[in-house]
Amino acid sequence: MSECRYFGNGEWLNGKTVVVTGASGGMGAGIAATLIKKHGCRVVGVARNESKMLKFIDELGPSYAKQFSYKLFDVSSKESWESFAKELEEEGIYPSVLINNAGILPKFKRFDRYSYEEIDRAMNINFYSCVYGVKTFLPTLLQQEDPAIINIDSSAALMTLAGTSMYSASKAALKGFTEALRVEFKGKCYVGLVCPGFTKTDILRDQKNEGGKGEKVMDMISTDCDRMVKMIMFGIEHKRPLMIHGIDAHSMAVFNRMLPVKGSELFSYIMKIADIDLFSEVFKD
């Protein structure tokens, strides 16, 4: 088991083999590209959409594409993680960094309006996929030099808002899981927790609100994806244990500490008086 070391300039990342989930677009693609271009990493991307993966490879360009490979599977399947690890071992690929980035944002709804299928999907993709990934790769990671686990969580883990019961529950579970790992493997493995606010990606794809007022509001409070990736990578490079990025995320963290009950009520009230279609299934009977 190797010892965890620290290089303030991100040198510790250089040349490592990294697994990144949700790597076909958004923050995952940005993180993968930075690891390849800036740190000379070999990245194995995980996603379900091959056409988006191929587009990402094309955008990398031929000089960098050779440092990237990918596997297509459902991250919420424990068996798929086990098969993935076995395939990598057979190929002689031994990751030393795992970045769990894949996640979904269920449609904003009052809890009683969620189906069991939606509940299971949120918990399985946002939480259990990270548990499966860590459980599967931890033995391999701990055998590598200066290993790391980085879980991309959400500001929803810092404060729960109306209409986000299952999303917040899955993200709060991921936060608690990551914090336990951080203590249990201190000195053996760098464990980072990232809690970004809304980011300009396609995470709202399940909201069915294209071009509506809600989309415009979310766009106003969301952080540019490239900027978010730069902030996240800076934190990873400096081995920050906790990263909170985005004005909305910082506001939620502060209000939750100062007003642990009223803060959530205040933010939810603002959502209600905004009277936008995005939250129609939260406040309207």
What share of residues are in beta strands?
Answer: 5-15%
Structural class comes to alpha/beta
Number of strands: 7
Mean pLDDT over the residues: 91
Radius of gyration, taken over Cα atoms and rounded to an integer in Å:
19 Å
What sort of overall outline do the alpha carbons produce when their principal axes are compared? globular
Structure description:
The protein is of the alpha/beta class and 285 residues long. The protein has eleven helices and seven strands. It has helices at residues 26-39, 50-60, 62-65, 78-90, 116-141, 165-184, 213-221, 225-237, 247-258, 262-274, 280-283, and strands at residues 17-21, 42-47, 68-72, 97-100, 148-152, 190-196, 242-245. The protein has a seven-stranded parallel β-sheet with strand order 3-2-1-4-5-6-7, sandwiched between helices. Helix 6 links the parallel strand 5 (148-152) and strand 6 (190-196). The chain is globular, with a radius of gyration of 19 Å.
What's a quick, concise take on this entry?
By secondary structure, this protein is α/β, with parallel strands linked by helices.
